[in-house]
Design a protein that fits this description.
Elements: E1 6-12, E2 15-21, H1 27-34, E3 53-56, E4 59-62, E5 75-77, H2 91-98, H3 108-121, H4 127-134, H5 145-154
Parallel strand pairs: 1-5
Antiparallel strand pairs: 1-2, 3-4, 3-5
Helix pairs in contact: 2-5, 4-5
Length: about 160
């Protein structure tokens, strides 16, 4: 291991991943390239669009703004872990499909993880708060209403 690289153990979706990265490598890049978890999308790479949203210790975070070395010791959840071990769709994934809350799908993993983080923390979130929270991610296709309807349909059911 060269002196400019760090050996890390990341806990992602309940599994340990041993990776060697430069200290400046983002968590998004590490998840995609070192862990093989390509569901975390990179859009703006400036923390604006939300396509790279994952859960870190239960909180939605923009993984493009977090260095991988900062995530060591944290519980990381990505869209690949949302469905669980039985490979059946998670209720949020089912709701996004049923409510046509995705079109091109690029923003969907980030929205799913943001919604999961919101519902974990505030399962009875009201419509205005839900709309405000979901507005932090960008979607160019759906117009947001179907995304809000999908999350609303799952609210309080988990």
């Amino acid at each position: 291991m060269s002196s400019d690289r760090r050996q890390l153990t990341l806990r992602v979706n309940g599994e340990q991943h041993s990776v060697e990265v430069e200290p400046r490598r983002t968590l998004a890049d590490t998840l995609r390239e070192n862990c093989g978890l390509t569901g975390t999308h990179l859009g703006c790479e400036q923390g604006v669009c939300g396509a790279c949203t994952i859960l870190m210790d239960g909180d939605p975070v923009r993984s493009c703004l977090v260095f991988a070395v900062q995530a060591e010791g944290c519980e990381i959840s990505t869209v690949e872990g949302l469905a669980g071990d039985d490979s059946e769709l998670h209720p949020l994934q089912e709701a996004f499909s049923a409510h046509h809350a995705l079109q091109c799908g690029f923003c969907t993993p980030g929205f799913l993880m943001l919604a999961q983080g919101i519902l974990d923390r505030q399962p009875d979130i009201d419509d205005d708060e839900l709309r405000a929270a979901l507005s932090s991610n960008l979607c160019r296709c759906t117009g947001y209403q179907t995304i809000i309807e999908a999350v609303r349909s799952v609210r309080g059911q988990e």
